[in-house]
Amino acid sequence: MSSTEARVPAGLLNPAERELMERTWRPRRGLWGWLIATDHKSIATRYIITAFVFFLLGGIEAFMIRLQLARPENHLLDPDQYNQIFTMHGTTMMFLFGVPIQLAVALYLVPLMVGTRNVAFPRLNALGYWTYVIGGLFLYVSFFLNTGPDAGWFAYVPLAGPQFSAGKRVDVWAQMVTFTEIAALTAAVEIIVTVLKQRAPGMSLNRIPIYVWAVLVTSFLVLFAMPSVALASTAMLAMDRLVGTHFFNPAEGGDPLLWQHLFWFFGHPEVYIMFIPATGYVSDIIPVFARRKMVGHTALVLSLVATGFVSFGLWVHHMFTTGLPQLGQSFFTGASLMIAIPSGVQIFCWIATLWAGRPRFDTPLLFVIGFIVLFVCGGITGVMIASVPFDQQAHDTYFIVAHLHYVQMGAFVFPLFAAFYYWFPKLTGRLLSERMGKWNFWLFFIGVNVTFFPQHFLGLMGMTRRVYTYLPETGWGPLNLLSTIGAVMIAVSVVLFIANVVRSLAAGLPAGADPWGAHTLEWDTASPPPPYNFAHIPVVDGLYPLWERSPDAAVVTGMAAGKRQVLVTSVMDAEPESIYEHPGPSIWPLIVALTIGVTFIFGIFTPWAFLVGPALMFAPLVLWFWPRRKEPRERGFAEEPA
Amino acid sequence: MRLPRALLALTAAAALAACGHRDLSALDPAGPQAGRIAALTWYLVIVGSAVFVVTTGFLLYALWRGGRRVENYSGEAAERHIHRWIYGAVGVTTLILLVTLIYDFTTGRALASFAEPDALTIRVTGHQWWWQVQYIDPVPSNRFETANEIHVPVGRRVRIEVQAADVIHSFWVPNLHGKVDLIPGYTNTTYFRADRAGVYHGRCAEFCGYQHARMDFLVIADPPAQFAAWYRNQLRSAPAPADSVQQAGQQVFLSTRCAMCHTVRGTEAGSRVGPDLTHLASRTTLAAGTLPNIRGSLGGWVLDPQSIKPGAYMPPNPLEPDELHALLSYLESLK
Amino acid sequence: MKRTFAPPYLRPAAVLALAALAAGCDLEQRSFQETPPGATAFPAVQTTDIQAGPKSADPSVGVYQENRWAVSQGQTWYEQFNCAGCHAPGGGGGMGVPLNDAEWIYGSDPENVFATIVEGRPNGMPSFRGKISNTQLWQLVAYVRSISGLTPRDTWSPRNDHMQEGRPNRAARPEPQLP
Q: Are C132 and B257 in contact (CB < 8 Å)?
């Protein structure tokens, strides 16, 4: 009979059981072990690294854009190369870096923060990662074969249609979207189930850390937003291009605006898919560095949920110049202004917490402060362009470019860097250098402002987006040069960050379990965490488990050390319900991902791929789910032997 | 938004003083539509800057104040105190947003109510990468077509009907009004009025392929009498060649590639693929606002357009020197 | 380069990578400024009513035939230069001969089609000598040949953004000719 008992310092498992547990969860070695891994930390770590590599690639593309625009009539890139590069930049940052890295960090942290041993569906997790890698590789291999997409990251038809984008370039884009959709949807499902059903006993809904709330809301956004773009790109655009359907051909009853609706119905929530987890980092980091509990926890959680809902009512503000009826546009102006209120609530709570606490200015907090400043700026320009008349001037100009980079760089990358600095010790057991961290922050912060602030002016001076060059008479030269200088600063700061990581991996100070005096459960275990995360699943008795732990805090005992068991708890109150045995490592997720890759990549060339592909997928799927001798099964909690 | 008015004005002035030919500023309105939006913009900029300064001020104060604390400010009373501040801040935010919303709506309605049935109607069709301009009149003989340059009379409302021939473009003259998209299968309408005479630059604002960057046009606001004269001239067919050189040039035009795509009214050239060249010499720019309309750039454009606008649909025209000179003389006679 | 294209999935993995590299680069290349061989490169084109002209061995001709963008550009010229006026949109034929079948009176090689457009042919096909640039001509040739499936499958255009009139493209495949 499992029970919660008083914590015994020596640990409740005896050494032999401990050894058994190590053996049960230990990842296999070598290349094979790497290919079959299903541990959430192993998958999430490579997910994070892969996404970061794409961040660097997207950054190099951004840098090339800035070099091309540094002076008028520059001939560094021709329009064909420029169109491919800016499309790759947007696509990479949104689809291969933005969404994946947020889900990747969540896949690492969520099981630790809710106190469980692995994500809910470990093999699905591996499948998601492999699918994502195949999609990303496919895009970049195509790019280096001069088949990079060139119709912009939102691929408006008819420019992206069969007549005006000949060849396979846009097909590559459309299928890459499909791969990242699959990966994001699998991650969302895992996160939702992990959060709802695998929380440590005692972590009732009102005790879930804000970051976990944030990724829960994000996962639901993924679930409802992604199918829209999957339908639009994978089904409709790909079919228009491959078999000549007429979804977007106005002459035959199709409609180019349909694409914009479907794309932005996904595209706007996507911004929040990147932004909401970022606010989650901030809300969990601020209490640690302000050394005070968060002001207004409930308000923060409600703000996240409200943001999630309202984010589905904003998409038309990308389409204010398309001539939609005025009344309809007014609704979206209202919604776009309304979403500023929950964001405001969050900002006020953060400021209040810093005011009422005793902040210590370590690098993570610096990035958080930088985030607040940039986010306020980006938020205010967001309120400006929510206005239909003003947007009709600002739309598709560098004002929008400035706004979106303030919210992307400011409100997404800055918190992400804060999170890197904050959780790096947990991932690696080593601290990052504070001195280099501060250089990194200041260069980055100043660089972002120098790069993007002048672009507000450029927009108001008439510089439109996505131009590969401009004439000297326009007078845009000096501000563009300034912007390029800022980009150099950002590049230097990112190089510094990489140097910091490399140096710290080799010679960083050992971090210990909890270097920051933090409050969430992931700091309750070793750094880096053992494969089973916690020797004993902790029992939570407060919103700040490590700060509010009573001296006689309980842990869960009685789970078999020789099996991959996780505790299933109830949705509302996290009462223990049952023990579920997780499947072990498996090669089949990789094989299935490869068959998905074959299906979608050859689906560009022939529709037969969609008949052959699922047939190829059938065998690996059967083998994936083939019942083993020791079948994982759900057992009543009470039946578990003590 | 740290956007002090003086700074913006200074920057714009410095930039304009340096190169000063193209005024594409959204904050330098030349008519009531852009004027309303500019007023709204200044409101947004000023309120936004104020909010930014206040919020950042609070943040910095919080960091300074918190940094000096020895003891956390916490407890029941403290939380209540803090919550009161937060409620207050949310209240102020909501109020600002409401006022903004109302101002947005009233401006939007004012812009929409500018429509007028008997405005001068011009149909603008976007092509990759130039603008086809048709003046619509109830009397068919008062209609004509030109390209990349729109003349309007000062003080009269203009109705622009926009269409797209291939992909989505966007019609934007910052000094006169906001954008309106040209979408295949749709006809969108926008109204504006120029209140002072001048040359206003316009651009394509929606990414439309290789030469999106070089798809500009001009809106030239003329005093009514001057506009009427211009209009009468545009209605005419092209003048006949005045001398033997122009005669030879016309022959070059009609017998080589030019006539495959371009129209010169009054000659056999009647293809509607490229811009109408009937009154080419009366225009200020070439290649959709890319080059000044002078003999040198016209020659360069005819010989090798792909160096100037790579990807454009106009092919290179390797002409013999005497053919080229004749052709240029002819084109320059198309006043 | 000519005729080396085959669907890469039919080849072993190593060849696949190389083929993809070569094919990818060529298929998608956009060349705005090039001077292809023109009508002057074929001074000896002499045609009677029934004979195909001589072939050129110029290798750069094939590049246009296997380039997706060239075919698409050719489709644009086909519409803009009013080829469709006689041969119908999609090449189904009307006043002019159909282009989407396997029957080629004056030869189906790129050089033959080029010559047909440049020189004109008896019974109605006008000569476009001097009217269309060489680049455009080769693109037009590529499109005309793609209509009847003579260019690689991946260069065929599935549809354009207009009304679909007549038979859709690729309605007819090249059939073995009856003796």
A: yes
